[in-house]
Amino acid sequence: MERRPYTVVVVALLLLALTLWSTYSVIANAASEFLVTTLAALVLPSILLATALAGGAAGVLAVGLLPWRRLFAGAAGGLVVGLLATGGMLLAYHHGPAVPYVAAVVAVTGALGGAAAAFRFLEAVTAGIAGGVAATALGLVVAYFQNDLVDLFGNQETVGTMAEAASRLQLTTSILSGVLAGVVAFIALRRTGAALPWPVYPAAGATAGVVTLVATLLGWLGRLPLTAVVEDYSAFDAQIIYSRLPEQINHGMIVLFAGAFTAMILVGRTIRRA
């Protein structure tokens, strides 16, 4: 009998709640509709990432309860989380443009995350989500201490050194996030005691990066109308939003490959030679 991933579900929901609370704290203090729209466009990918992870965890739990309807059960469990995330998002962003569109994107993201639980190896999905939650939590910690960390990475209070330090910090964070995701996914899979083929391990390690890339794509789609509004006010601010897409894709790719490689190395060390 498969273990119920209650711990993963609880931690993923806590991460989602923390992300939504942070979003509310930022957007609620905005002084104008333009600033509200800009901030909503910037934070949307982070909300979608947390929603996809929590939706996936809920989907795994739902599939465990209704194994004969894997796709339906997973999507339904994820949709519940998506609707909860939508409610949290609407508390922060409810009077700007394209609110129904943004709300729909958040809800759909939860359902898509839950539908991932329909994959064959449920243990791998659970382990991958656990790795994704760990990697995302690390990102939140880095963001909280960003000012101190940028100084640690060589910021000398000039534009050039600040940009270089921020770039080094981002690269280091991406690599460490991937390694952490791979380690957590490997440990979670080993603890199940299930006899799984070795490719399942790097696949679980890569899950955090895959979810990050999917959330980035959905975030780009979800903020298209928001960015169009921002562009009407300020082309410079719109360009800042556009410039975030390549950075987020690079982060997702690094997390994907670092996570897969780490899990592959770890499982390789456990395989006995013939």
From TrEMBL:
Domain of life: Bacteria
Residue ranges crossing the lipid bilayer per the database entry: 40-64, 71-93, 99-119, 126-145, 165-188, 200-221, 249-268
Keyword set includes Transmembrane: yes
Keywords linked to the UniProt accession: Membrane, Transmembrane, Transmembrane helix
Protein name: Uncharacterized protein
